[in-house]
Amino acid sequence: MTSHVVVIDSTARRAVVKVTATKHLSDVLEEACSKLGTSASQYGLKHNNKIVDLSRTFRLSGLSSGAKLELVQLSRSASVVSVALQLPEPEGNTRLTDKFPSTTTLWLVLRKFEAGVAGDASTKRNLTARGAPVTDDGSSGAGRLYYQTPVLQVMSRELSSFTDLQKTLAQLGFNSGSMLIRLNFKTSETPLEEAMVQIAEYFKSVNEGEDNKEEGQDRSAPEAPSEARDLNPASNEADVPASEALTETSPSETTPATSDLSTSVPSAQGAQPTSTGRPVQIFSPPTSNTPSAALATYNPADYVPSIEHAKAHQRHLQEKSRNARLPSEAELAEQETAEAEKLKALKDVEIKIRFPDQSSAVSTFGQDDTGAGLYTFVRDDCLDERWKGEKFLLSYSANKGWVFVPDDPNKRLIRHLGLKGRVLVNFKWDENGGASMAALATKDVLKGERKKEAQVLKAPEIPATAVEGDEEGVKVDLGKKEDEGGEKKKKGMPKWLKLPGKK
């Protein structure tokens, strides 16, 4: 039996949608938005001032024929949905669970589960690039590999086409709570290699469309996603675009490296070309064991605390003593998305490699440069011929301490490691990875031509200029003071400066 509902938007425009008892309300929303010329991903439905559950069918929604539904705009921030994926018998008949933003597509959910990024991180599976051999007579056995399409069943709803798998959790009506996805496979009539090409072309067109929308950025065309590069995701880690993968990497992997360059680096005018075509600046090691900053003159009065310093310290203690609300999962996901967008907008990062003899090399790396490319740059453009075959490690400073740069062609310096601004990278020999005793004992590792190009790195001299109109703050003298009789008397700490628990 066919019924109908009326969908009304904010401008009082109407769209009449025919529904059956088994039609999902998410399909009703898509059909209404297509008639009204809006995007279904940005809207929801209300009935009698109550949000309608789009995951339900019309029969289970409690709506009557001819019901009037209001089209309302959803929040731009993504909510969190707990997803349980029930695997079929060939995959162990187990259930994997994890949390995803509501803007995540079903295809991306499968990619994350199969790569071990979500669910059981210790196991990698093949869920989106499976092939089954089929002979010419149609029987199974040794023959040509045909693509096995993943078939998802969500609340008595079967989703198998590639268009259906590109729907987000929110488009299926899941903006919060939990959902169960049952996974099966169906052998298609498309050869495996043709299916992989079609998937790669689809994602390439999507990525090019996203790049065309970005303004003021001059970037090269993005690489094809891992669906084209890897026919067996079970053996390689999935590489998903950062704009979609909100929970792809843990915070420890995406912690931005802080700039540890103690002195300013001169402009790149003196950079010398290398064999790889990357300009590099070489700086010679310091001639003295005493840092140049320690030799600079200073005014002892600058280190006497003022009343302003004490008040700022008290304000800091008061703020730390107040209870603060922890961010929600949606806010954390929004922060990760914002950080990923910032990294995506960066054009390059300036990296300074410091060698054991305290000499250094400075060069610029872009969005497409990887950890393996950084190791190749150090090995081919900086190290002497004698040491090119030795194993070495590169580390940079993160919030959790010094982290090693992975020698991996799939780990990009900016996007995956979170490097930005100016970053200091330390060079050290790999003691456990096969570095020889001769390499461990030496500190002079640069090639001869690089030593000839070395410049002396000088700390900039900052002139001491007094700012007019600034009044000198009231100083707090914590030393000794002479009384009227000429004797020195110790002065205690002011009462307003005492910390809690101190007498």
From TrEMBL:
InterPro entries: TUG-UBL1, Ubiquitin-like_domsf, UBX1_UBXN9. Residues 8-71 form the TUG ubiquitin-like domain. It comes from the Eukaryota. This is TUG ubiquitin-like domain-containing protein. GO terms for biological process: intracellular protein transport. Residues 207-295, 468-503 are annotated as: Disordered. Residues 260-292 have a biased composition (Polar residues). Residues 242-259, 494-503 have a biased composition (Low complexity). Residues 214-230, 472-487 have a biased composition (Basic and acidic residues). Coiled coil: none annotated. It comes from Endocarpon pusillum (strain Z07020 / HMAS-L-300199) (Lichen-forming fungus). One of its GO terms (cellular component) is nucleus. Pfam families: TUG-UBL1 (PF11470).
